[in-house]
Design brief:
The chain is mostly helical. The protein folds into two domains: 15-83, Arc Repressor Mutant, subunit A; 87-139. The chain is 59% helix and 10% strand. It has helices at 22-34, 39-46, 54-66, 87-105, 107-121, 124-139; strands spanning 37-38, 70-75, 78-83. It has a three-stranded antiparallel β-sheet with strand order 1-3-2. α2 packs across α3 and α4 (87-105) crosses α5. The longest helix has 19 residues, at 87-105. The chain is elongated and about 55 Å long.
């Protein structure tokens, strides 16, 4: 099991770029779309909207492999790459890691802030949160 995915979290980023660099995000999006691809496949997808060298794509794929986000396999003399996590699993794992880190600062302040932000950003999710809390309490035998 991986240590952490979200070693770096950028508050100023949008979406996945809060955790991944811009090119890493593009590469991951290609892999999530295709499920597995060669370096050349990734290059051809990215080259549609960006001028980029093949060696740069391979470097990013290697870096993502070292980070544990991509699996590298040798098939018929060529390497193929596939995502270790689905987009949903990645998002869920990053959310858990970041929230745990913030809760370690102050659980009560984090929870109060979370509820306030959720109420302003997505009030309908408050009911879902309440249901999740009740379900977890029953699961733990406290409700």
């Amino acid at each position: 099991m991986r240590e952490t995915i979200a070693k770096t979290f950028r508050l100023s980023g949008e979406g996945l770029s809060k955790v991944l660099g811009p090119l890493e995000e593009e590469v991951m999006n290609v892999l999530w779309k295709r499920n597995d691809a060669s370096g050349k496949d990734v290059l051809s997808e990215i080259k549609r909207h960006r001028d980029i060298a093949y060696t740069t794509v391979l470097t990013v794929l290697e870096r993502l492999t070292i980070k544990g986000l991509v699996e590298k396999r040798r098939e018929d003399g060529n390497y193929t790459f596939s995502p270790v996590y689905s987009r949903e699993e990645f998002s869920r794992t990053v959310s858990k890691e970041v929230l745990k880190g913030v809760i370690d600062l102050s659980a009560s302040n984090t929870l109060a802030s979370f509820v306030d932000i959720l109420a302003n950003k997505d009030p309908l999710s408050l009911e879902k949160l309440s249901s999740l809390i009740e379900s977890k309490k029953r699961e733990l035998g406290k409700g």
